[in-house]
Amino acid sequence: MRILLFLVPLAGCGAGGAMRQATIVGQCAADDAACSRRHPMAPLAIGTRFHPDISTEIAGTTTPTLILDSADPHVLAIEDGALLAKHPGASAVMISTDNGSVIDFIHVWVAPITKITFARRDGDRIESAIGLTVGEDVTLVPTLWNGAQRLAGSSDATWTVDAEGALAVLRDGSADRRRLRARAPGKATVTVALGDAKASFDVEVVP
Amino acid sequence: MKAALLALLAILALAGCLPTLAAQSAAPPSRSARLDSIDGFWGPKGYRLELSQGVAIALTCNRGGPCTKLRVTADDPSIAEVRQASLSRLEVVGLHGNQQQASALVVIGKAPGSTKIRVRTGDVGQDIHVTIVAPPITNPQTAVTR
């Protein structure tokens, strides 16, 4: 019973508005455990985008047509319905109806990236070098951190590989994920950079 | 009986007085969103609001029930912006148990400075003396990992 009571608050994983009328969550595929947009409670990493899914909980009505805007566009801008993290700080994201009446607002924090780690799509963190056989591939997602705090937001980071003969880095349609395909036996180092932060890992391709 | 009489007197007094405002949301950590009343003999004669840049606060307006025909304006919207809000909550009006939707507004801190927000309901109103304060300086951090 105690465990059940503990789990109840976890079920509502979205961020609730200050007026307790709207909830914001990230847009992620149901089976994408590593999706960085799943963490709307976390600060957004500078240079990343967060695609929000907003719903309201107002008795007697479904969610009306809503418009987002930022209290401080210098910190956090709204572009095509996505939140764009620009500078460290906090900004209220105003959630309004199309006639300008505020339904709710939520303060969103923006933080710089101090560390990048990598995870597979199932969320398993990459801790050491990766071994692949020729023709095999693996999909990786960069995870962004500020100290011990995981950051949210999807990044369009730069992926580079020092031995393109051994390994190909392919886009898979998302902004942050990449598919690594082993081409030929050899060793390669993959480096991912976003802003001033960068990280790398080694890949060994065997026949 | 005495309590009911006091409540009746309070409602009658409020009905002829200036509207009152109440904060309905809290500030985020390390930021400011504080509403203080400037008290006069008959009740609040104005309000002071300290708000951080980039922070919003929700307020409700009450005058013996939710304020009617609420009009809100900011003298300098580049410092503090004010918008009407839709708060889906019913509040008691009068003595007969009727309820009406809360009358709400939201103030947004846009840039450091001072300005005044005018809240009007019918032919009376309150002024909010707003001070927007700059957020604390955040140290930019960068790191390289391998």
Please characterize this protein's 3D structure:
The complex is a heterodimer of chains A (207) and B (146). Chain A is mainly beta and 207 residues long. Chain A folds into two domains: 3-111, Immunoglobulin-like, CATH 2.60.40; 115-206, Immunoglobulin-like (Sandwich), CATH 2.60.40.1080. Helix content of chain A is 5%, strand content 50%. Chain A contains one helix and 19 strands. Chain A has one helix at residues 2-11; strands spanning 15-16, 22-26, 44-45, 49-50, 52-56, 66-70, 76-79, 82-85, 89-97, 102-111, 115-120, 130-133, 137-146, 149-150, 158-161, 167-171, 178-182, 186-194, 197-206. In chain A, strand 9 (89-97) and strand 10 form a beta hairpin. Chain B is mostly beta strands and 146 residues long. Chain B has a single domain (18-136), classed as Immunoglobulin-like. Chain B has one helix and eleven strands. Chain B has one helix at residues 2-15; strands spanning 20-23, 33-40, 43-52, 56-62, 70-74, 80-85, 90-93, 98-101, 103-109, 113-121, 124-133. Chain B has a five-stranded mixed β-sheet with strand order 2-3-11-10-5, with no helix packed on it. Chain B has a four-stranded antiparallel β-sheet with strand order 1-4-9-6, with no helix packed on it. Chain B starts with a helix and ends in a 13-residue tail after the last strand. The chains are: A mainly beta (207), B mainly beta (146). Chains A and B meet through strand 9, strand 10, strand 11 and strand 19 of A and strand 6 and strand 9 of B.
